[in-house]
Structures are given as structure tokens and as C-alpha cells.
Predict the 3D structure of the following.
Amino acid sequence: MTVRQRFPAGPAVDLPAWLARRDRLTVGDERIVDFLAAFAHRLLKPGVTRVRPELAALGFFLRPVELHRAVGRARECTVDGLRVPRGLVLHIPPANVDTLFVYSWALSALAGNRNVVRVSPRSAGAADLLLDALNDTLAGADPVVGATQLMVTYDRDDELTATLSAACDLRVVWGGDAVVTELRRHPLAPHARDVTFPDRSSFAVISVAGWHAATPARRRSAMAGFHNDAYWFDQAACASPRAVFWIGADSADAQAEFAALLADVAADRGTTVEPAMAIRKRVSAYGLAADGLVNGVRFAGNAVTVLDLADPAAVPRRWLGTGTFPQATLGSLAELVDLVERRDQTLSCFGFDRAELVELATALAGRGVDRIVPFGSALSFTPVWDGYDLLAEFTRLTTVSTTW
Amino acid sequence: MRTLSEHAFTRTQDERAAELAPALAELTAHHRIACPGYDRILSALAIPRDRAYETVADLPWLPAGLFKTHELRSVPADQVFRVLTSSGSTGGGPSRVFLDRAAAAAQTRHLARTLRAVLPGRRLPMLVVDSIGATMGSSARSAGVLGMAVFGRDHVYALDERTRPDVAAVKGFLAVHGREPFLVFGFTFLVWQHLYEVAVEHGLDLSRGVLVHSGGWAKLAARAVDNAEFRRRFAEDTGLTRIHDYYGMVEQIGTVFVEGPSGGSLYCPDFADVVIRDPQTWAEQPVGVPGVIEVVSTLPRSYPGHVLLTEDVGVLHGVDDGDWPGRRFGVLGRLPSAEARGCSDTLAEPR
């Protein structure tokens, strides 16, 4: 097996010996907090954020104030005991979202776990930059960080995956249905379990009344946020809004303004959709039309394609190409409840008040939708993700009782 | 009434445009009636059924990749005579194109007329630069070889079953047929790697041959061989000067764009044309400005493939100013493929 050790840089560890080690960290271990803070400091340097704005978001996420808040919240949840690390956590992050492996790993390290992260051989760009920054940060860090945290890259290797799966106390699998199913072939120890992040789909939901009530400036800034949500990861991240549901009557004017504003923002920001992607979008859009699922197809340049759904219940959930927005109008949020499926993750919303959205979440009753966020926040990673409180997942509870 | 002996490269651009625009408009109307999926696409694009089309470039195009994801045909299922498949180099399954008897006959007839421009009326002895095994199965490669094989006789295959040159077979072919006109056919890369290099090594005389080849230059770019270099070295080192690259695709079967005798440009048969489109605005590009190639042909009647946008980049070289009348153009390569970032590692999978 060819394993490339990415972190800590240097001579490769003896893996069986490493897996058998017994180093101890605690939940919210200050040595880890210090390391993450120093790492965040590097990411927030102007030279980095200028080139890779998505790393700034990660840098903010890892500031000590954020980390202490997350740990504090995790501790509060403990009713009758104390939160302890799970032990050894294996992370299988996706190839396509370069920064996600750090979010997954950092929270688990903060939880006091020893971690093995399998960095995809297909990852590049930001991932390499992050690994360099992690290794640079290690120089000034407590040796326990390098001793307890390991990041490796290896090509498909069933034997190694099986070894790591058997050794870990928790396995965290990102990357969609196919990856989760593939990983499940490798048994865990009886006490261990998986946290899985399968294929998800996400929508935007807009109140027609709320849209009209907003000032033009407010609508434009909302669309700037929506543009981030949709285009940052080519509309292909699990939380990227794809279909747009309009709630209320007479949505035609609002829909037209939405498309025009989005095209405007895209033009302002120099959003380019490559020709091959533009053609791929046509294949998706024309295909849906041929199938009778869509009865209107409109383009605002290559960046924005709007599709009118013939039946909102048949909303396409698969990726249709960057900047493709099937849309439909529903009478009320209650009608949306019937359309939601287990795989639906994030609703990016505009024009509703909190009570309406809480009522929606209550009516959904867990059948789908894990996050309801305002425009501009769809891709903001939080310690609660996909319905999991990650710090809780990455820890166990030890109860201590002294009364009979 | 044209006769079969007349070749297919006769119309000036004005003559061609005057014929093609109404013929393609008629085909558009025909497919809207005969193919409900096609009609739904045009309706979703808000194109009225009675819309008039002034020019070929006004006609609505379908992306050729749609034939990979959708079964679009304008004949009832029980009249389908042949289903052609081809896997392209971009994602999705193979393209599937449906021919009834009339369409199958028409494509062979039109291909023959097209090739008449570069081949004599009689069949020539034919050297196929491929293995006989490659002609089995249903790949695009085998379809290409089989489609062309009917224009030759006494076929000899220049490659063995492991795709290595069969030098004895080539020498044997030349010993029998090398002093009369003969046809050489193969994919561009194989022709270069397995015929040119063998011919040079063994001092073979190919001067009486007519080479018809296709497949693109991407694989040869690594060897710094482009069309001009290909022609120059074949001519200098083997005597082969009658060389015709051609461009065509299964989604428009029977329509091929053929390189003229002086080389470097592809020409459109009278029943076809190309439009080069700006990849941002999709407007027509002028001569000399590269864009995405749209191919149009009056041949596809059994499926709505008469106006197709390819994923190839090309450029118009000129109009009515080359070996044959009409537009002449070059193919510059394929559009770089569209990759997306995202959480799922299996993005484009259908649910």
C-alpha cells in the first residue's frame, strides 16, 4: 500500500504502533484550542483570504471564541455527568469540497479525540494549502498535537480502510451515498459506529409577500447572499440551493425580478459558467422539458437558467449544472411539507418571520430538512450539521452517581 | 434530379442557405409533430409552432449530448430499423439514434454521394488501419470501420488482434494492389502510429492510395503532429498525397464534413452546413473567430437531429473561397469538460 503522510509532515509513522497508542486529550483540550487558534490566525492573513476567500470562513470558524463557545455548549448539555472523548475517530471527507476535512477533523480534535483523516488523492488547491498551514503551525505547538493527529492520502486500498475501520471508535463518512455504501463494507468494532453524510439536496424558499414588502436594496443584498449560496460550490454542495419555491399568490413579477437580479449580481461579480457547463445545463434543462417535468426554460446568459416546474411534487433533486433553478409556486409553507423528503437538507429562506419557519420545522417533524437559514448562510458550516450536533457525536458521556 | 454520380459539394453558400433554411424549417415542423419530447422542448423555450426561420442560424438547436440521456425519435417504435449507439468522450451513457428503413437507406446513399468527391465511382481495394476484431461489437470505432468498408473491396486489416502492425499483411496488400488506386481508412491516431511509422521503417510506397481518416488530433498533439505536419510527412516519406480528414458524429449519421484536396479545411456537403457559435452569447461567429460547432443536416428525419450543437470547438476558414463551394472550417478540439465541486463524490448520478 502506498500511503502518503500529509500531517504531521516528516517520516511516516508506524501505523499499527500509532493505532495502539494511548495518548490522552480532554474535551476542549487547551493544547488543541491553542493549535487551532494559531492555525486560524494563519488562514486569516490577508494574503491568504485574498486568494482563497473560503479559507477565511474556516479561519473564523476556528477562532478561540468560537471554539470555547462550542465546547461550552457541549458541556451545558451534560445533565448528570461529564463529556469525554470517544477515542480514535476515522474521517473520510469528500474529494470535492476542499475545506471540509478541516471542519470535520477540527471539531473532533476539539472533542479530545485522536484522529486519522483520509485526505482524498483527488483533492487539490485549497487542501494542499491547508495541509501546509497545518504543518507550519505544528512547529510552535505542543507535541501532543502531532502525536495524536494524523492525516494521510492513499488510493483505493481496501486493506488499509479495513484496518482503520476496525481500529476506530467512530467513523465519519462524507461524500455521498456511494461512498457511504462502499465504506459500510468494512466492519467497525462492535462498540463503534458511523456518522454518515449521504447525498443531500437543498432548496430556496421565498415568500412572495415578503419579497414585495422588502426594499429594493434589501432584495438586492438578499440576492447577493443567494448568489454566494448557489455559485460558491457550483451549486453542487449539499447545502447549495437548487430549486426555488415561491410561497404565495401572483409570484410572476417577483420571479422575473429574482432572475434579473441574480443575473445582475452574477455579471457584477464576473461569475463565468464555462461553455461545456453551459451546454451541460442545456442537456439537463431540455431533458426535463422533453420529459414533461418542466414547461418553461429561460436563460439569462450562461450563468442563470430558470425552469418552470410542471408539477412541484416532481422537483428534480439531482444536480443540473451550475446556475440552474427549477422553480414553482405553492400556496403556503404547509404545501411544502408534503414535498419534503429525508434527503432534503437546507432551506435557504427569504421573507418569512421566525414564527412561520418554526411552525414549518414543527410540521416537518423530522421527515426532512435539517437547516433553515437566511439567504447567504446556506454554506456556513456550523457545529450542528445535517441534524447532528457534531461535538455531541464526537464525544461520549460518563455519568457519575454517588447516591444510592 | 441529381444522379448518384454527381458529388455532394456543389452549392455556393447563398444557394445552400436558400435551400437549407426552408428544408430545415420543414424538418423542425415535422419533428414537432412526430416527436412529442422534441415539441415539449421547443414549447418550453416559447418557440411558436408556426415560427418562420429566415436563416439556418435562426433554427433552434439541440445539444448533441441530449441523445445520451433521452430517447428522441420521430418514428414509431415498431418502425425502428436500426439503433445506432456511440459513447462520446463526455459523461452520460452512449448516444442512441433511431433509424427507420428510409433513414438507414438515405444515410448510406448520402455518405456515398459525399465520398464520391474523393473516391472514384467504383470500389477500390481497401486497407483498413485497424484490427478485424475492432470491427466486431458496437463501438463507434467499429461503426466507423463498417460504415466505410462498403466503399472498398478486398479488405486487408493492417493491425493484428493486439492492435500491433501486421507488416506482412500491409506488404501483401501493396504487392497485389499497390500499383493501382487503393483506399486506406482508419482513425487518425492509428494511421499515424501504425501506418506512417511502419511505412517509413519499411520504405513502403503509398503513392497510389487515397487516405480517408477521422478521429481528431488530440492524441497526436503530444507528438507535435498537426494536420499540416501529418500531410507533409506522409507526402514526403510515403508518397501519399490524397489525404482526406473528415468530421462527423453518430448523432448525425450519414453526414460527414470532408477535407478538400488541398488540405487544412473541412467542407460541408450540399445537404449540410456548420454554424460556429460564440460560447457566451451563442450568436454566430464570423470567419476566423473560434466558437462551438453546430452541425445542421437535412438527413435526420427519423429523429430530431437536424440541428445539433456539438461540444467541439471550430473556426470558419472562409466561404466560397476554397477547393469546393460553401463554408470551410477547421476543428480545433473539444471543449474542456465541465467539472463541479460539491459534497457528493458522485454528482451526476441520477437518483
Q: What stands out?
A: The two ends of chain A are 54 Å apart (CA to CA). Chain A has 17 helices and 17 strands. The CA atoms of residues 207 and 239 of chain A lie 20 Å apart. The longest helix of chain A spans residues 252-268.
